[in-house]
Amino acid sequence: MNALLGEEAILPTSGMRACTAVVVEVSFNQDNTDFEGDVEFLSEHEWHSELELLLKDVMTDDGKLKR
């Protein structure tokens, strides 16, 4: 989300440990109009296509996880 908003510190980040690998709550602040976001949902077909691409990135040709 930081990259989408063009900011460095909206959500916590760390090069040493996972910060957003778990559920993160982002609250709505009606008084702050500095940021606007759009949420777009994928169809089930689009989601499966994205997952297939991601799996190709992390799997070797013989079907094992890349190290």
Can you give keywords for this protein?
single chain, mainly alpha, 2 helices
Short description:
By secondary structure, the chain is an all-alpha fold. The protein has two helices and no strands.
What's the total helix number?
2
Euclidean distance between termini CA atoms: 27 Å
Could you state the order of secondary-structure elements as H and E? HH
- Count every beta strand, where a strand is a DSSP E run of 2 or more residues: 0
Global shape: flat
Write structural notes for this entry.
With 67 residues, the chain is mainly α. The protein is built from two helices and no strands. It has helices at 2-5, 44-58. The two termini are 27 Å apart. The mean pLDDT is 78.
